[in-house]
Specification:
By secondary structure, the chain is of the alpha+beta class. About 25% of the residues lie in helices and about 30% in strands. The chain has 16 helices and 34 strands. β31 and β32 form a beta hairpin.
Amino acid sequence: MSYFLAFCKSHGSTVLSQYQSLRTEGLLCDVLLKVNGHEYPAHKSLLACTSDYFRAMFKDYTREYRAAVIHLKVVTPTGLQHILDFIYTSWLSLSMETLEDTLEAASYLQVPEALALCSRYIVNRLDLENCCFSANVASKFYRLDALSAAENFIITNLWRLLEFDLEATELLELNFRSLLAVVKSDRVPKINEQCLLRLVLKWLKYDKSRFVHIRELLEPIRFGLVPVEYLRKFYSNSAVPLSATTKSQIIKAIDYHTMVFKQPVMQDKYSTLRNPKLWIMLVGGETSNERLVGELLGFDVYNHKWRNVTKLPVHTTSHCICVVGNFLYVVGGESTEQALKDNKNTATLPSNKVYRYDPRFDRWVQTTGMLEPRSQFSCCTINNRIYAIAGKGPAESLHASVEVYDIDRDRWMKTKDLTFPVHGHACTVHQKTIYISGGKRAGQVNTSKDMYSFSVSQVQWNKQASMAIARFGHQMATVNDSIFTFLGMYEPFCDIEKYDPLQNQWTRLKPLIYDRFCYGLVVVEDTVLLIGGKKWQDSREVPTQNVVGYDTENDCWEEICPLPLPLFGTQCAVLQLSDLLGNELIPQK
């Protein structure tokens, strides 16, 4: 025996529309719902099919099973009207004015499809005027998806909310959970920590019953990012009672601010930027008109945007830079200022000066200088210590000396010297071992192929396998477990080599299609970026004006973007910047 099974798509909607017709005409309605004097005739069968509340109410063993009139005391007439319309038509009327009533009715009557539509409405209609109200409503009725969306909107747009409503009235009425989500967030754009702390204090004082939340709201505040003058006033004259934990955090932050030179090794969550963005810093160098660069430039590699971040304390070239605890150190180099201070006719002189940049407060400080002036040297960090290696000194002298900066004590100390003076060499770090390569030694005409490693634990220099190519003014980079050496000032200009520290072995790689030297180098993920520099053209040095990237995985090159100006001799590093800094966009030429 055979049969045919057919399906009618319109049957369900037809049945529903017929129910609505019966309701409109008042036919076969077997229950009357009453709310605050308002009456709503309905059909028990349809109510039970769409509402878990009514399904349980109309069981044959309940008192309401045979009742002709049901009094509903929790919902409002508006809310019940909207839910009944939805039950009978599948259409739910929503507005910000009736949202709370509708959600209350949908929650009480347990109509999950209506709840889902309310949540979707909240998510799709978020704006500056309603986001705090939406978060409060979503929190009240436990609509977690809508609550999460509202909180993310508030976090992202808090700076706009504060501009939009100078008295922060809406924010002061925000529910506790949502405000806690804000102060716990790692990303609160364009808001400094002091502003966030003031908002929390205003919220607490808005209603003193909220004082039970003081500890929870103040403990996530990053007091290390709040100016020390404000912290001292807050600690001694707080308008809200402070917990022992909060007081301890404030004292720790004051100590952090007081110990200026130790800050890079004191970093923790409470002194870490909330909305950090990785920028490539371009420090120092020269432009095509032989002018030393006076701005600290920032490069957003993902959006190809350039910004002036801040003024440099000294215009320098042939220098080194390091990053420790997201503080930028500018070490040594040659500067016109140094030559003028020493009453020398020389355009530039090697310097021992060291400057440190704090992106949290956009502030430079001068730390203790190196023991010896250096230029064309190499520099690296291990275990939060900065190592300065060899280089050129005054009167064209060369150094074999190596010194290390102890950040804890703001002090430079001698360590194991090289066995030869050298300048123009490069260095990198692999697994807490320093590697230097190439350069030119005193008394030698030719550049070097040699590579040496320095073990910090053994305080010993060891000779390693030599490069295939002698190099000067080149750069090295560590990517994963390999060390790369790039280009150089003398022929051959374009070659690249890779070194395996475990095997002590070099491998030649695909050369760059054109020469480049005096460039900046930085590693972003597995890509090495070469920024600016010079090339040979018609037997003379010509500045370049672009950024090229080397893919270490696939051994290939690509041009990334142009520089805003020709630049060579710059040094590069990755730094996290506050989005409150570096807002002056440099136009592309």
